[in-house]
Amino acid sequence: MHVSITAVVPVSDAAPDRPTPTGGSFIDSLVARLHAEFGVEVQAIRSLAVEVLASFADARVQAFVPILVEKRLREICRSWA
């Protein structure tokens, strides 16, 4: 018996920093969390977040972009703190 499994990965045309259904945005909440955790200046984190997010603009699968952006920003904030 042959079983075929198909995974569906939603891909959105909306950028991850656009408002989410809850009214916030990915960048806003990430910046707030990293500022609270590492004490790095909010504007510095926000500028870097926009830059890192832009580096994933052409990624074929956008579903993991928020996770990858947060991981990269955490690494940078650790080195600054």
Explain this structure.
The protein is 53% helix and 0% strand. By secondary structure, it is an all-alpha fold. It has a domain at 26-80. The longest helix is centred in the last third of the chain and has 16 residues, at 65-80.
The N- to C-terminal Cα distance equals 56 Å
> Total helix count?
3
- Structural class, judged by helices and strands? mainly alpha
Q: What would you call the shape?
A: elongated
**Radius of gyration, CA atoms, in whole angstroms:** 15 Å
The string of secondary-structure elements, in order, is HHH
The biggest beta sheet reads: none
Helix % is 40-55%
Task: Report the average pLDDT across residues.
Answer: 79
Proportion of strand residues: under 5%
What ranges have pLDDT less than 50 throughout 5 or more consecutive residues? 2-24
List its traits.
3 helices; disordered N terminus
Quick description:
The chain is mostly helical. The protein contains 3 helices and no strands.
Write the layout of secondary structure elements.
Elements: H1 26-38, H2 42-55, H3 65-80
Helix pairs in contact: 1-2, 1-3, 2-3
